[in-house]
Write a structure and sequence with these properties.
Length: 228
């Protein structure tokens, strides 16, 4: 708005109306739509004019549903769940095969400073219930010998990570650490995990949506912007 109170249109530079109310713009958009009914810019112009703000799914960017009911997201979640389930089963199997059950005594090369007494001699306490296939390197939980109340996620042994990789694959770029087994056990880790049956299935869809897919969009998100 200028000093004397008149508006100037940023589209045609006439005074007395703004861009939203511009008759020239409206005419041009109508013409574009007549020439090409798929002209998305023209379509959006009239959609906005009708006041009908078109809602699109925040995952796939298509119309007609939302994130909570998105079929593509649902498919992606169950695919991830399946992979995570296989990965978690493989972690348990390979830790046990290596003698790294609950109570095993190990020398661990790479530990948080709080529990590194006795030259890194620690006991396997279980697996980290929060571990999933996107974060495979701290699936093991160890505890100190002198202060057994101190538990900490620890890097996975190299050999175990390699075997799990061969079995189910990992997203890549993860490195384990060297671990020497001083005294092995075959005590399964599952009893250290609350709801371990659900855990072995890869987690609940609700948890996966929240933890893994919260800020994710479909690969087709930008392409779908132009679709009905
Ligand atoms: Zn105008
Ligand atoms: Zn969707």
């Amino acid at each position: 708005m200028s000093w004397n109170g008149t508006v100037t249109c940023k589209h045609c530079w006439q005074e007395g109306h703004n861009r939203r109310g511009c008759p020239k713009l409206k005419e041009q958009m109508a013409q574009r739509l007549a020439e090409d009914p798929e002209d998305w810019r023209a379509k959006r112009y009239f959609e906005k004019k009708q006041g009908a703000k078109v809602r699109r799914c925040t995952y796939c960017n298509l119309k007609g549903h939302n994130r909570a009911t998105c079929p593509e997201l649902k498919g992606a979640v169950s695919e991830w769940k399946y992979k995570n389930s296989n990965w978690r089963k493989a972690i348990i199997e390979e830790l046990l095969a290596a003698g790294l059950g609950v109570g095993a005594l190990i020398k661990h090369a790479d530990l948080p400073w709080r529990i590194t007494e006795q030259k890194n001699l620690v006991m396997v306490a279980g697996v980290n219930p929060d571990a999933h296939i996107n974060q495979p390197y701290t699936a093991l939980v160890v505890q100190g010998i002198i202060k057994p109340t101190e538990k900490s996620p620890a890097k996975m042994p190299d050999g175990v990570l390699t075997k799990v990789y061969e079995k189910v694959g990992l997203p890549g770029g993860y490195y384990g650490t060297s671990v020497t087994v001083m005294s092995e056990t075959k005590n399964c880790h599952l009893r250290t995990i609350p709801n371990h049956e659900e855990w072995l299935q890869g987690g609940t869809a609700k948890w996966i949506k929240k933890e893994i897919f919260a800020d994710k969009q479909s690969d087709d998100f930008y392409e779908n912007k132009y679709k009905d």
